[in-house]
């Protein structure tokens, strides 16, 4: 049963989604030597009875075993600072204060590699440079056009990868990148 709980933890599925997935993969139930597919409440009890520190240590051990894919994605999202209002602007159409969470994630292993919390009005591109300091090497980096800049493409190229994004309409390519230089946008 613990094996099944660990898999659910790694797959990032809801309890119901995971039980449905188990029902379609009977071989896993046989491998765990269980008489039948556990219901979602049984799996939930395993999580509730096991301390969070155990799951964190287990995740750290799993990360040591799983090879780093070096295929990353970068994105950000705004976080409002008030529970009272759901809007990003007030009645006079002025922007409210908010924070922005920037994340670089390993897209194959579904793990967060770097994160940074900034003021909401800070542009994404300069934050990318700060977050890439601790990333050793990259095969492929994907992100939205807000992260697109020549400097960011060069940072990724220096780490052995290519930055892939949808090109911004007003972006101008250097002549060298038009000739097939792999420092440009893929």
SSE layout and pairing:
Layout: H1 2-11, H2 15-24, H3 26-31, H4 40-49, H5 52-65, E1 71-80, E2 98-106, E3 111-119, H6 124-131, E4 140-143, H7 150-158, E5 162-164, H8 175-178
Parallel strand pairs: 1-4, 4-5
Antiparallel strand pairs: 1-2, 2-3
Helix pairs in contact: 2-4
Description of the structure:
By secondary structure, this protein is an alpha/beta fold. It folds into two domains: 2-65, no CATH class; 71-76 and 103-178, no CATH class. The chain has helices spanning 2-11, 15-24, 26-31, 40-49, 52-65, 124-131, 150-158, 175-178, and strands spanning 71-80, 98-106, 111-119, 140-143, 162-164. It has a five-stranded mixed beta sheet with strand order 3-2-1-4-5. A hairpin with a 4-residue loop joins strand 2 and strand 3 (111-119). The radius of gyration is 22 Å and the shape is globular. Residues 176-181 have low confidence and may be disordered.
Question: What labels describe this entry?
Answer:
2 domains, 19% strand, five-stranded mixed sheet, 186 residues, 8 helices, alpha/beta
Briefly summarize what is shown:
The chain is an alpha/beta fold.
Order of helices and strands: HHHHHEEEHEHEH
- Give the strand content: 15-25%
- Spans where pLDDT lies below 50 across 5 or more residues: 176-181
What is the domain tally?
2
Rg calc: 22 Å
Report the biggest beta sheet as strand number plus sense, adding barrel if it closes: 5 strands, mixed
Distance, first to last CA: 45 Å
Shape: globular
Strand order of the largest sheet: 3-2-1-4-5
| Average pLDDT reading | 76
Helix-residue proportion: 25-40%
Helix and strand content put the structural class at alpha/beta
